[in-house]
Design brief:
Number of helices: 1
Strand order of the largest sheet: 1-6-5-4
Distance between the termini: 85 Å
Strand content: 35-45%
Largest sheet: 4 strands, mixed
Structural class: mainly beta
Order of helices and strands: HEEEEEEEE
CATH architecture of the largest domain: Sandwich
Amino acid sequence: MRQTRWQPYNPLWNQLQQLQSEMNHLFDRWDRGDGQTSVTAEYPPLNIWEETDALHVEAELPGIDLKDLEIYVTGERQLTIKGERRPVTIEKGTWHRQERGFGAFARVLTLPIEVNREKVEARLENGILTITLPKRESAKPRKITVKAE
């Protein structure tokens, strides 16, 4: 028979250590250690909605220059938003905190419907990127006439 020492708080202690480890891992993904945060995989945040004729994507991109932004539609159902937000440089003074992330980013989305990639339009205004993706004719709802006899 194997003998072990009874430790009433061991399971609780192990759970607390595991929680601490997971929290450290979570914060390590964001904090670069120099008071700055990095751009995460969820950047830019998006809103996507569908209307009868088109799919709309809205992305928050404050402080980005148009020359640093690329948008691709691959096939009929994949949208890629790539770019880079450059860090702000200051001539005089010292940074105390810099929470707005910077760096290269890429967001690849599988769209819920097929779109006509030849007619996609994009507009950047006041830091909001709006992309209009018209539906392909085959993805649009078709009204069926019911005949009576």
